[in-house]
Design a protein that fits this description.
globular; Rossmann fold; alpha/beta; 4-stranded antiparallel β-sheet; 34% helix; 6-stranded mixed β-sheet
Length: 271
């Protein structure tokens, strides 16, 4: 099997990637849906890229392909210098992890949170039961979960605490890349700020590459050094964060920026 180059300059190199779905109706008719169209994007090691666009713009489909869960209809994706399609999913998972949008549905309600965080180590065959539990406790502590809560069920935690558990589970394999899909959209504003600050701190301490997916530019600009704007499955604009906010070139991007400028500063995210 091919091996990943830990010294590669780019975490991801995406070249002319398209993803087309064939949908069959109840009458047996087949139609096509183009979720992504000729996307090219390079993400440098250590970079934080904000992937923004309205619902249905193709952001999550692209993320699934970056995780190896779906394959491009055409084009190719390289992960740390290797063709992603040729890698085993467990090898991809050791380098790239995903934070889900909804902390309520992304945890098994019957599994204590320390077991949930340790589970990826079990899947990868890493360590003993004792060492996995100790690693989970350490990671839970790093994400701000108090020791008294290590053995509780998800239902005993708040929404923000559950999202911290999801983050701990994503980081337990010490990945190089974290893909975050709307990780704060299910939380209230004050908790959003806490989670964003946590992600920023972890990114700095662990030297993570991060792809932050959102429809909300207000959220993305606090983390991302570069913003990629998607519409109808295409990249319509990209640039550094200041450029996108101060001098957006595309009408669609201007509309996204204008939509957050109309919000009162008091309703923004207090970071």
């Amino acid at each position: 099997m091919p091996t990943l180059d830990d010294q590669a300059e780019y975490a991801f190199e995406i070249e002319n990637v398209s993803r087309v779905y064939r949908l069959r109706s109840g009458l047996g008719q087949v139609r096509t849906l183009q979720a992504n169209h000729r996307i090219s994007l390079a993400v440098r090691r250590g970079e934080v890229v904000g992937l923004v666009g309205e619902s249905g713009s193709g952001k999550t489909t692209l993320a699934k392909m970056m995780l190896g869960l779906e394959h491009p209809t055409e084009g190719r994706i390289q992960l740390f210098g290797q063709d992603l399609e040729k890698l085993r999913l467990r090898d991809v998972a050791s380098k790239v992890q995903f934070i889900f949008q909804d902390p309520y549905s992304s945890l098994n309600p019957l599994r204590p949170i320390d077991e949930a965080v340790a589970y990826p180590l079990y899947v990868q065959g890493i360590g003993t039961r004792t060492s996995r539990r100790e690693a989970a406790w350490k990671m839970l502590a790093q994400t701000g979960i108090p020791e008294r809560s290590f053995g509780v069920l998800p239902s005993q935690l708040s929404g923000g605490q559950r999202q911290r558990v999801v983050i701990a589970r994503a980081l337990i394999l010490q990945p190089s890349v974290l893909i975050c899909d709307e990780p704060t959209s299910a939380l209230d504003v004050s908790v959003q700020a806490q989670i964003l600050n946590l992600l920023a701190d972890l990114r700095e301490r662990l030297s993570l590459t991060m792809i932050f997916i959102s429809h909300n530019l207000e959220v993305v600009r606090h983390l991302a050094s570069r913003i990629v704007v998607m519409q109808n499955g295409r990249i319509v604009e990209q640039g550094n964060t200041n450029q996108i906010f101060e001098n957006p070139k595309e009408i669609y991007t201007r509309r996204l920026v204008a939509s957050i400028m109309t919000i009162s500063p008091k309703s923004g995210i207090p970071l």
